[in-house]
Amino acid sequence: MAEQVRASYDSEPVLTGVSVDLIPGGVTVLVGPNGSGKSTLLRTLARLHVPDTGTVTVDGVDTCGLRGRELARRLAFLPQSSPIPAGITAHELVSHGRYAHRGALGRARDADREAVEWALHVTGTSEFADRHVDGLSGGERQRVWIAMVLAQQTGVLLLDEPTTYLDLRYQVEILSLVRRLADEHGITVGLVLHDLNQAAAYADRIVVLAGGAVYAVGAPDSVLTNTTIEAAFGLSVHVVPHPYTGRPTCLPYGHETVANIVEMEYQ
Ligand SMILES: Nc1ncnc2c1ncn2[C@@H]1O[C@H](COP(=O)(O)OP(=O)(O)OP(=O)(O)O)[C@@H](O)[C@H]1O
Hints:
By secondary structure, the protein is an alpha/beta fold. It contains ten helices and twelve strands. The chain has a six-stranded mixed β-sheet with strand order 6-7-8-3-9-10, sandwiched between helices. Strands 2-1-4-5 form a four-stranded antiparallel β-sheet, with helices on one face. The protein is globular, with a radius of gyration of 20 Å. This is ABC transporter ATP-binding protein. GO terms for molecular function: ATP binding; ATP hydrolysis activity.
């Protein structure tokens, strides 16, 4: 989907020669240290950031050739944070997700209403659909944003750190939902996550970005290794198989772990 992309801010390169393929109907997770270019790559895939060179395609079509509504019918993007809209309800915000599907007069049809109800239901936001978004908690608001992009009902879904602000239960629910959208609806999902263990649990493919370039790419167990994580994040970890799923689980050596090891060695 992105081929040999170079992107910059004020002529300062941030991504250099990045090629990334999102698995069709699968979940691709971008991980990497702060400032490695994950959000910029996702924004470039969503055509919100124009690359200096390289191409970005969706369903094989160059995004440069797609107009706003055409693109919005194919691809939905949830940024890391968005301004909080004042004075509108959760239901109204989620309904905005349908704008690209509406006819010339902008009237909601049955399909629009059904998509909004479904998105509210699967994100657990129906119960506060009539409340103002600016009066919701951070996690409730985040789920409403997710509902808005789900209501868009696109074949490609790009989510930048969608679990931010969510408690553990909703982190698991939203990531499980993302998994179901790929498995049961064939939606192509690209998301940025900081939690490597969640990436391992939900991804088909992991892309590790470091310094604006792809450092490693592949299935979780081929990418999430001690050496790759140490090199990309500058952090010592011990990767063990998850006791139930067998997926890689990263245990960082925090200062307490190091202290324990030192203590054990001196006993
Ligand atoms: N609007 C901007 N103007 C100038 N520089 C920017 C802008 N947005 C990001 N950058 C810079 O581009 C680089 C990549 O930023 P980006 O947000 O893509 O990284 P990231 O991997 O998503 O980081 P994080 O994990 O902290 O969210 C960083 O050095 C950042 O300072």
